[in-house]
Amino acid sequence: MLKTPLLHPQILEALASAGHGSRILLADGNFPASTKLGSNATLVHLNLAPGMLNVTDVLRVLTATIPIEAAEVMMPNDGPEPPIFAEFRTLLQQATTFDRDEITLMPRERFAFYDLAAADDVALTIQTGEERIYANLLLTIGVVTRSDDSKQ
What we know:
Number of helices: 5
Largest sheet: 6 strands, mixed
CATH class: Alpha Beta
CATH architecture: 3-Layer(aba) Sandwich
Strand content: 15-25%
Distance between the termini: 16 Å
CATH topology: RbsD-like fold
Order of helices and strands: HEEHEHEHEEH
Strand order of the largest sheet: 2-5-1-6-3-4
Oligomer: single chain
CATH superfamily: RbsD-like domain
Shape: globular
Number of strands: 6
């Protein structure tokens, strides 16, 4: 048995194969994951039904499993910031430990975000059943330091 909150074998395999600087895309239910898939990315479908699983559900488990050093979001061209961004910030802030700086969300224009999501450094794309719009999050994997090891 594993002691990590993450038990999904395909996700664990993709994360174990990734390294510092690799990226993980958490995609909402509207994201065109099959056509915007990075050439090295494993695609995992967790979209059983609308609203199941949400991006924030997956983010909670990932922040307890891997170090995250950066986060990018798809930003609308106009209008207010999507409400889900506040949840992203809260979950990322809770995961900021080991003397790392707070992770800020880096906004990206929609088509620029699509290009980033399809880049070669994306190791894993997780398609969720998230129904909230602009709920796409591109995470950069950080490094595990000695102080990270001592927390186990």
